[in-house]
Description:
Blueprint: E1 3-6, E2 12-18, E3 25-26, E4 30-37, E5 40-44, E6 47-51, E7 55-59, E8 64-69, E9 75-82, H1 84-95, H2 98-102, E10 119-121, H3 124-138, H4 144-172, H5 178-197, H6 205-212, H7 216-227, H8 231-249, H9 254-260, H10 266-277, H11 281-287
Antiparallel strand pairs: 1-2, 2-9, 3-8, 4-7, 4-9, 5-6, 5-8, 7-10
Amino acid sequence: MDYSRTLRNNNKIYCRTTSKQNELQCCDDFNIRFVLSGSESYHLGRRHLSIHPDSFLILNKGTQYASSVLSNDPARTFSINFDQKFLVDFKNCWLQKHDRLLNRQCFSQKIEEEFNETIYPFRGDIKYNIFHLKSHLDNGVQDELLINEYLHHCLINYYKIYNDEIFEKAEKLNFLNSSTRVEILRRLNLAKEYLYSNFNTNVTLEDLAEHACLSVNHLLRTFKQAFNLTPHQFLIQLRLQRAQLLLKTTPYSINEIVGMVGFECPSSFIRLFRTHYKVTPLKFRKNA
Length: 288
């Protein structure tokens, strides 16, 4: 069931099933985009970002993009457009102390910095929150007080993820200059996006380093510092996560899934899956 809801405070929620490529568009508001089934590719200038059910994308107001469906089946998408006034109010309440919040005239009327438009992990509290919100909307709930509380918690959960994925990872980098740490992490996120979007291909270190505008050895040293995994370990973990999702939600055979997620050998996939999840792929599918 597709639907769109525009609340009285101009927050907007969309649930859509899409199977075609969209023309170039521009975001009217800060936007969080989820793919609940299937997969989508977003084109932001020269960047191509692939979004699956285990990840989500942030788009800032004014960002131009085009999207297309990657999967054979239509993609089921869920997105939230946050009105600027609602977003400013939330940000002030998140950052300001109570004495300043009491003086509403001190509130900033704009978002001074944009969020990092990259791929974030869709798990934990934000996933729980979004699926509960969608369940209410699917059932026709009209209570805007309840819906806006979910939107408020969605922003809280996103801020926590943003802090984990941006600030805390930047602090792990061994550079004294904070601006250098931020720039290195920005480039590492380009490498991470490349892995998310090309996980099922033969990724080389040279391609990854070139995409991140880093030398191979600089990439290897800083990627491990930021993500606690080497690029190869990150790629293997990502492939196993995508395989787990396919085992749970599709009828594809294990041999088919092996190829779909980028593994070459079924036996090595089964061994890695059992090591990582303490269960064989077949048993995982039966339990799921």
